[in-house]
Every structure is written in structure tokens, then in C-alpha cells.
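Field reference: sequence -> structure
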Amino acid sequence: RFGVRLYSHGKAPQLFPGQRVRVATRLRPVEPPLNPGQPDVRSRLLRSGIAYSGGFDPRAVVVLSEPGPVVRWMEDARQSLAARVRSTAPSSDAAALFLTLAAGLRAELSDEMEERFSASGLAHVLSVSGLHVAVLAVVLLWTIRWVLAVSWAVARRFDVRRIAAPLAVPLVWAYVVFTGNQLPAVRSAIMASAVLLAMALWRRPDPLNSLGLA
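Structure field:
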């Protein structure tokens, strides 16, 4: 298996992640830069599993499967978020960077920006990684704990983390699904779920067991 990056010769039909299509194209290996000073995106594409590129005629696309209602809703939510960010961000690059870091919409980022992060050794922060999920899990845990402690008087009689921890688990997984189920995020979500459920069961989290589970 390998990935391809296809370019439409004309306006392409609206497609959603996970849809199956049939299309005729002539594939060619991803090429290195052809001009001096041109950003080299080949290594980044190969690391992402994209080995070939090509073009296609959008009039010849045959859609083999329709998107589910959940997929359609998430895509609409992403596009709505992208529109609001573009309208408030100080620049297009700032909007693209925020959408990449917060929502996993990496396609918004320009090749030049990708190359800059790659040259600085910080390309890993552009993907929704374990760090994003871990920070989110901690923020959710403390936020839910604070809300329960303030709004529910009974919660002050015991450690409210035992209730806040399991409530944070579905929210963590909702974020992972919303950002495209990227593998580092899934691994981190499994570890975070193990730690949060251990808190709910009043057990001491074991990082090695969590890592082995992930």
C-alpha cells in the first residue's frame, strides 16, 4: 500500500474522508526539486507514505461509496472552524498554522511553511501528536474537576477526580476522531484513557503498563 497525491484538472467534486472512488490517472514518483532554492517536499511526502503523484479529469470520477452522517458532520464542523479562523487570524499563515496544530488540517499549510519547520527540526509538532492529547487530557481533567467541585456540594466530601477522570475519556477520544485518527494521537489517547480510568478505580497509574497497552 502507498499514498498518492492527485491534482484535479478542473473543479473536483466534493469528497469526504473515507469515500471510495474510481478514477483514471497516470502516476509518477514524487520528484525532487527541479529548480535551485525550491523547497524539497519529497522527503516529507515519503515519510507520510505518499510515493506517487498524478493528475485526473474530475469529469471521469466515479464515486463508489457515500459518506456516513458522522463523517459528513465532522467535515462540516472542520470547514466551519476553518472559515472562522481565517476570518479572525492576523494572516493566512497564522490561520493555517493554528488549524494544523489544533484541528489536524495540515493541508492548509503551505509547502514553504512545512519546509521551514522541517529545517528547524520541529516538523513533529505539526501533526496532532501525543503531546496534544496529553495536554488536552490534563486540561479536561482539571476543568471537569473544578466544575464539579464548584457546582456539586457533595463532590467536596471525596476526591472528585474519581468522577472527573472517566468523564474526560470520551472527550479525549472525540478530539482524536475530529483530528483524523492520526496514529500518534491514537496511541496517546489509549495511554491517557488507561491513566484516567486508573484514577477512577483508585489505582496508581503505571506508565509502563500504559505504554505497553498503547
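Note: The two ends are 24 Å apart (CA to CA).
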